[in-house]
Description:
23% strand, seven-stranded parallel beta sheet, globular
Amino acid sequence: xxxxxxxxxxxxxxxxxxxxxxxxxxxxxxxxxxxxxxxxxxxxxxxxxxxxxxxxxxxxxxxxxxxxxxxxxxxxxxxxxxxxxxxxxxxxxxxxxxxxxxxxxxxxxxxxxxxxxxxxxxxxxxxxxxxxxxxxxxxxxxxxxxxxxxxxxxxxxxxxxxxxxxxxxxxxxxxxxxxxxxxxxxxxxxxxxxxxxxxxxxxxxxxxxxxxxxxxxxxxxxxxxxxxxxxxxxxxxxxxxxxxxxxxxxxxxxxx
Length: 256
């Protein structure tokens, strides 16, 4: 499976490393905002010998021809909301899109949905396998205890300013108002921790997922890409990838 990666920051580098290590994947190229390391290969920068993942600067390429000349099976996006404007031509060529961007606004989310009319698109603000199990388990527990008080606590590194997109999705899945039920904590270098607290009259139930290493995002993205690569055009969710139907109903962003 030939993969193109957008984003080569702290998380993007770890995602690239997971792709390079996977014998069933080939990292063809990396797009990044800055001109740093342009012309070099991600594999060399990450301590591998193979010439995988030539780095390009988004500001210096012509998108009208780049994706056709550098055709891949799947694009994995770990960059920012604005990047959705850049791979319109790739979608028209049928390249699949896996987006793990967590801070889409309404306009960019609409653009991502529009791309699914041309190709298969999978969107998940947190693409780790564990967090999606957490969300499904929370749905089950809510059905068992529908009158429980529910609060969502999300913890991230001190520099993160936005509310966690994963926490927003958890709240939506559980029918909770974001401003009232999401509690954000910003301290130190926490990669990501999400807790769902169910308060009952005589007991408290807590569901917790913690990302210990950003490599988990790369592993989840590869899992999603393998699932998506042969799917017809349309918009898909990580819940569908994992086939978690036990919680009742699919949570597809196209229904949002």
